[in-house]
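Changelog note: in this version the structure field was regenerated for every chain. One regenerated record is shown below for reference.
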Amino acid sequence: MTEKGEGEKRWIDSTVRDLERGQNDRAQERSDAMDEKTLGILTLYEVEKNWIQKTLRDLNGDLDRTAKALGIGRSTLYVKLKLYAKEDAAAEAAKAETEE
């Protein structure tokens, strides 16, 4: 993941934590402070991927609980995770190829 992508991910994780803790004002302040130039634009696909991965981490890799929390079937979750893994592997291979 790029440095910009890591920054966006940290921002999303921090904002989600604030919301989960009931700190809506703090989350709103963080959101207001982040403009398009700083945050960049995430596609719906990227938001979904980040949210699924975050939920999976929060639930310690439990696929059944993660699927239930997300409101999707376990098989749907599995297909999405398999797709993400293929994409990540392809991105790593491309990165390694350009570094050679």
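Spot check on this record: The chain has a mean pLDDT of 78. Residues 1-41 form one domain.
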